Amino acid sequence: MRRLPALLALLVVVAALLAACGGNDQAADTNPAVTLALDFQPNAVHAGVFTTVDRDLDAKEGLLLDVRSPAASTDSLKLLASGRSDFSIVDIHDLGLARQRGQDVVGVGAIVQRPLAAVIAKANGVRRPRDLEGKRVGVTGLPSDDAVLDSVVRADGGDPRKVRRITIGFSAVPSLAAGKVDAVVTFWNAEGVALKKRGVRTRQFRVDSYGAPRYPELVLATKRSTLEKDPALIRKLTAALAAGTRAAVADLPRAAELVAVRSQGDRPLVRAQLRAVAPALNPPLRLRRDVLEGWARFDTRFGILERRPDVDRAFALGR
């Protein structure tokens, strides 16, 4: 009977520990779920997003991040507009077009800090952009492709009207590899790396080296109602994603593995694509007014947008 007080004390301690553990689980379960739609299927530019989730950096900000992969690049804006996602990663040109149509979507962070678009040509026969006059160049059919091609050729003193444009959809790699076209408008960080891995000798003419400013190709966006209703949520999410991006850049092999698992992609290719795009991920999530003003001028000059967007309305600056 003398041992009973000690046993009761031990039971009290164990119960307290279990209650504490249960309390932590309950706190984690009460973190608000935040839905983020990617701009496309998982790839290297999303390394910061997946690292954020993998390292529970969202939970550290009091959030539970739910990442969704759309079937097409335009679906992320549709999910945002319909309320099926709280945030979306979108192409900056698509954000401008959406606002031009009257959708009050707002960019709150930069996923990458430079354009990813380029004209990529087979090395034989094309040494510089103006050599594309008279050549077959594959485009997806999106207006931004024409703007990129016009900018690159014009900046080298060529005449974009003399380029033979062929709509190939999103088959840039097989079309160029098979010789169906002489060049393609595509992304240097993805298809450009894939072509190199295939052994296709190419020359890359990145748009920000030929006439375009260094604007962020992909941005994190939300609806203005979300921005005005819960500005703290914006700060928490951008802080979590910035921390995740820094962690991804600091450990590229681990980040590439996370992307490969989510995309079910070829691991060596994913690693190569992440190494290529990693410098463009820094500084994470930062938006700069002067850079965005340059983007606004570019999109208007080359006909992507009908009128110059109001950068202060299109982006959450200074928050």
Q: How would you describe this structure to a colleague?
A:
With 319 residues, this protein is an alpha/beta fold. It is built from 14 helices and ten strands. The protein has a five-stranded mixed sheet, with helices on both faces. A five-stranded mixed sheet has the order 7-6-8-5-9, sandwiched between helices. β6, α6 and β7 form a beta-alpha-beta unit. α10 packs across α11 and α11 crosses α12. The longest helix has 26 residues. The radius of gyration is 23 Å and the shape is globular. The N terminus is likely disordered.
This entry's quaternary arrangement is: single chain
* Strand order within the widest beta sheet: 2-1-3-10-4
CA-based gyration radius: 23 Å
- The number of distinct helices, counting runs of at least 4 residues, comes to 14
Question: How many β-strand runs?
Answer: 10
The amount of helix comes to 40-55%
Mean pLDDT: 91
Poorly predicted segments:
1-28
The percent range for strand residues is 15-25%
Globally, the shape reads globular
- SSE order: HEHHEHEHEEEHEHEHEEHHHHHH
Highlighted features:
46% helix; five-stranded mixed β-sheet; 10 strands
Describe, in short, the structure shown:
The chain is α/β, with parallel strands linked by helices and 319 residues long. It contains 14 helices and ten strands.
